[in-house]
Fold this sequence. Notes:
The complex is a heterodimer. By secondary structure, chain A is α+β, with helices and mostly antiparallel strands. Chain A has helices at residues 3-16, 18-55, 81-91, 125-128, 141-146, 155-162, 204-210, 229-243, 254-297, 299-307, 312-348, 357-384, 387-392; strands at 60-65, 97-109, 112-121, 133-136, 150-153, 171-174, 177-185, 190-191, 194-195, 199-203, 218-222, 249-253. In chain A, the strands form 2 sheets. A 6-stranded mixed β-barrel of chain A has the order 2-3-10-5-7-6. The two termini of chain A are 27 Å apart. Chain B has helices at 49-56, 79-89, 105-114, 120-133, 149-161, 179-196, 207-211; strands at residues 4-16, 22-34, 38-42, 64-69, 72-73, 90-93, 167-171, 199-203, 215-220, 223-226. In chain B, helix 3 packs across helix 4 (120-133), helix 4 packs across helix 5 (149-161) and helix 5 (149-161) packs parallel to helix 6. By secondary structure, chain B is of the alpha/beta class. The relative contact order of chain B is 0.20. In chain B, helix 6 links the parallel strand 7 (167-171) and strand 8. Chain B has a domain at 38-54 and 86-226: P-loop containing nucleotide triphosphate hydrolases (Rossmann fold, 3-Layer(aba) Sandwich). The A-B interface holds A 1-2, 5, 9, 12, 15-16, 300-301, 303-314, 387-388, 391 and B 54, 57, 59-60, 79-80, 83-84, 86-88, 92, 94, 98, 100, 102-103, 111-112, 114-117, 159, 163. Chain B: It comes from Luedemannella flava. Chain B: This is ABC transporter ATP-binding protein.
Amino acid sequence: MRLAEAWRVALDALRASRLRSALTMFGVLIGVSAVVVLVAIGSGAKQEVEAQVEGLGSNLLLVVPGKVQFGAAPTLSRLQLSDVDALARVVGDRDRVSATVTSAETVRAGGRETFTNVLGLLDNTPKVFVRSLSRGAYLTRSDVDTGRRVAVLGAEVSRVLFGERDPVGSQITIAGVRFRVIGVFAPLGQSLGVDRDEEVHIPITAAQRLFSTQRIDGFAIKAPDAEHIDDLGERVLAELNRRHPDTEFSAVTQKQILGVLGDILGVLTGVLAAIAGISLLVGGVGVSNIMLVSVRERTREIGLRKAVGAKPRDIAVQFLVEAVLLTTIGGVAGMALGLGAVWLIVVLTPLPAVITWWSVALAFGVSAAVGIIFGVAPAQRAARLDPVVALRTE
Amino acid sequence: MNVTAVEVEDVTREYRLGGGVSVPALRGVSLTVGAGDYVAIVGPSGSGKSTLMHLLGGLDRPSSGRLLLGGRDVAALGAADLARLRNEVIGFVFQSFHLLPQTTAVDNVALPLIYRGVGRSTRRRRAVEMLHRVGLGHRVDHRPNQLSGGEQQRVAIARALVTEPAVLLADEPTGNLDSVAGAAVLALLEELNAERGVAVVIVTHDREVAARAHRQIVMRDGEIVDGGNP
Lengths: 394, 230
């Protein structure tokens, strides 16, 4: 018997018991759509994190005291503003070296207030990070040099304190000290769990006075290109170690951050896929079960087919094709359902979900494989039936 | 020219039950069915006539002795080759018709041709021709449940003959039919026997049916007691 005939025979058989075929496919359908949806969510999370890390700016080198590792307590910083000048000499361009000191403070304007991150920064921040303003201007060199009490508000901070009004020129207080608003950032969203719209930027000199400290928390250095970033990191660390022999420093690139986060999210995606895979397996067992029932029910048919010349292989192929057809039709329907669900998730929820074509292809391949694996036992049983016994069955 | 369609030589068939006990169903049977023969096998139930028919049809193998179908020794054939031999040499007609229920008359008739590798359009053409021959040209696309018992049996006869076999084996072909339909089916078998030279072997317990055959073989207790090979 040709394979094309086997497909036709199998289709006829599935059509003959529509409800049962549909229910059997349903198990596979759920499994495949679960794979597509869960992998899409995992991949979406990964892509989102990558976009956030890359959205900080390109070719960044983040330099902080202590070791960078998850779960490590932050090390008390001994870095000072004078280190900025030293690093600027190493890098060769003062505009590429950004420094920060951060504290969470209460910010008030009129009757409203918000508790938010206040960052002391240099005027070169927009040249290092990707930040654009919707109103006013950023800090200037002279603001930093003179420690002027001016502030640039994150979009959310501006909305909370001033609503839709333009805050540029208005007075606010940060920890009770008066500042003048000179600019508002365009909305940016989250980055690595930090809402970057809930920030207030002030000159680093003003921040140190406000927080009563000489320290700075760390640097962000923009390398001229990706090639020299590791080399630059080493030179920066060498300079810092020379200046602060008793402190350890770390320099991490975005690639390294992405590597760590990517690994974690990759494992997450894998776990989600495995959970979905289990439901696919259960669907496969269902297919096997139904095929065994089907072989029993159609014993007479098998006997007749053998009597008129079907070889054992013809019978095996017929039932195997039937099982594969069940799972692949279920698989295609599951893919459609999964893709639809992912689309709904993207439209209706804030979850980032991304279709990865490997997961769709894999789910389809696995569902076909499930049909073969779980179809073999029933097909063999059918092929081995003794025609004399089969014909006599009522 | 080979005039012997089926040859059985001193064949036995035992069924093994549990505990090493075996029951003999056939004890040394010899029988030759030549091309164009019209043979009836009769005998009480348990006499071994069904077992003999299964052997003649290549559905079963003898425990000992020689069984030749279309001149080929069954003992030398594997399951797949035996299936091909059945397809080429034998046509079956059963008491309970054994039509596929969800399948039209023409597709039921064409079924054996699928396993012969005949293309779809040729299959249909030959099946339709066969249905016309058995008087069912107006029932081609009917399903079995839309046909009378006599019509269903004629579909089964068409299915048995569509491969142009050497032997048509009919197991109680009139057993589920009223006398009018049964007579019509027998008349059809006899016509086909005369017209095409296909050997017809009818297994029956009905003396009247058996009496119409050219040769009667009477079985009892697993042996041929009358009408066997000279």
